[in-house]
């Protein structure tokens, strides 16, 4: 668990390290999404550590108290928990999470836009470290023809003991062929969030985390061959067909962001109540629609370790599996080696 009071941000940039810690060079010259290894445990030895758990889940408008509780396991070695929900039901998911976390964490803030929700929890002593907090939302593409399932994003900016963080939880356009629409929505959201404050959000953050149902699909493979590869635990062979990675490589979206290795099975689409891929007449191609990406600011002075990136297969009340990441941040000291 972090010792928040010890944070003091140094001046100057940092760089991409080859030991699993991530930050970005001063010139910010990344192309596409950088896939980074998972450190099984946060290896920082100083107390200057802030650990953040991020969860994204498309709930398919269904409420299961048991499954919501499964999102937050008994192992809660994080200072902040950020939960982004898409197609959330009208039931009070916030209340269920607050009750599940009551012994260790409290709700700091929440933001919603129809079925899009974001909830921010902190350890019980964390409120005193909040220096500033802002929330925003931005809709794209209307309601998609379904009332209560508006696409777009909700976002939070928080200055937590000197660390300026932006969290963006989004739901982008569906269907395999809507790649350009998803790209356009990402750009539009990026340019619009927090614009009323006069400063683009990405320019004022030490770290930005984007997550949600991004809806990018596997392309160039049919459902049966894809499922066979997944059954044989060869899903790594499918990463080259992932639209999000392809579009980022072209420079269309998420340039300079980092993501953990996609070692878990594609998170969509499942038969509700099971871990069996779609058996309807559409037999949709399994895809990694649900993602968590992050970007460390050029001159933040921060190092980051991604100690887990996984899906929760045990959650079965939706046609999507939740995805969870555990991100630890450390302020670089002047004595850190280049």
Automatic annotation (TrEMBL):
Any one GO CC term of the record = plasma membrane
What residue stretches are annotated with the Inositol polyphosphate-related phosphatase domain? Answer: 48-336
One example of the protein's molecular function in GO is:
phosphatidylinositol-3,4,5-trisphosphate 5-phosphatase activity
Listed under GO biological process in this entry are: phosphatidylinositol dephosphorylation; response to abscisic acid; response to auxin; response to jasmonic acid; response to salt stress
- Ranges in coiled-coil conformation: none
| Entries under Pfam families matching the protein | Exo_endo_phos2
Q: Which SMART domains match?
A: IPPc
* Cross-referenced InterPro entries: Endo/exonu/phosph_ase_sf (IPR036691), IP5 (IPR046985), IPPc (IPR000300)
Name of the featured protein: Inositol polyphosphate-related phosphatase domain-containing protein
Organism equals: Miscanthus lutarioriparius
């Amino acid at each position: 668990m972090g010792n928040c009071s010890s944070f003091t941000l140094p001046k100057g940039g940092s760089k991409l390290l080859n030991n699993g810690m991530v930050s970005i060079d001063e010139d910010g010259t990344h192309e596409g999404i950088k896939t980074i290894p998972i450190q099984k445990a946060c290896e920082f030895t100083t107390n200057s550590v802030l650990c953040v758990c991020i969860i994204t889940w498309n709930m398919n408008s269904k409420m299961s108290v048991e499954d919501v509780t499964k999102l937050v396991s008994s192992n809660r070695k994080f200072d902040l928990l950020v939960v982004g929900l898409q197609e959330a039901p009208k039931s009070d998911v916030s209340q269920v999470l607050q009750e599940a976390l009551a012994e260790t964490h409290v709700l700091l803030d929440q933001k919603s836009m129809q079925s899009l929700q974001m909830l921010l929890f902190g350890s019980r002593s964390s409120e005193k470290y909040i220096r500033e907090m802002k929330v925003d939302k931005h809709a794209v593409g209307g309601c998609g023809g379904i009332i209560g399932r508006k696409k777009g994003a909700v976002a939070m900016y928080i200055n937590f003991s000197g660390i300026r963080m932006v969290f963006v939880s989004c739901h982008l356009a569906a269907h395999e062929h809507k790649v350009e629409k998803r790209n356009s929505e990402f750009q539009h959201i990026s340019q619009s969030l927090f614009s009323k404050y006069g400063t683009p959000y990405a320019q004022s953050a030490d770290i930005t985390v984007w997550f949600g149902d991004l809806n990018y699909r596997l392309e160039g493979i049919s459902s049966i061959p894809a499922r066979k590869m997944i059954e044989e635990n060869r899903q790594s062979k499918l990463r080259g067909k992932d639209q999000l990675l392809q579009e980022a490589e072209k420079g269309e979206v998420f340039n300079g962001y980092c993501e953990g290795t996609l070692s878990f099975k594609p998170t969509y689409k499942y038969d509700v109540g099971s871990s069996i891929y779609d058996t309807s007449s559409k037999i949709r191609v399994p895809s990694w629609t649900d993602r968590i990406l992050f970007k460390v600011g050029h001159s933040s002075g921060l190092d980051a370790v991604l100690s887990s990136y996984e899906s929760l297969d045990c959650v079965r009340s939706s046609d999507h599996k939740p995805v969870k990441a555990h991100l630890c941040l450390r302020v670089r000291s002047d004595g850190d080696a280049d």
